[in-house]
Amino acid sequence: MSTARGGAVRTLRVPGLHGYAAEFSPYLPGRLACAASQHYGIAGCGTLLIVDQIESGLRLFRSFDWNDGLFDVTWSENNEHVLVTGSGDGSLQLWDTAKAAGPLQVYKEHTQEYVQRSYIMT
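-> structure tokens emitted (122 positions)
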């Protein structure tokens, strides 16, 4: 994972995980959330990484594990500590970075992974 906020490029390597989505916090400058998966999202678990950008580089603030790959992440519009992730099992997870355990809640409405298809018009 690399960030380029404020002109500096920083890298955080997390062995065994591949990042799929990253979003800076709208509330806390330098805080970044990254949804990651094992084995390129084909199989394995997922991890939500919360990273702080500090003068000396990137520091892992907190991480949360999930039993399927995580492919998307977004911050809450109402709470600086709350995030939502989407996973390959079709569920959404609600996380609170102020708590070490999670998720707060799981929404399971889909029975399979949603595959986004891009169509090229010629």
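The chain has a mean pLDDT of 83.
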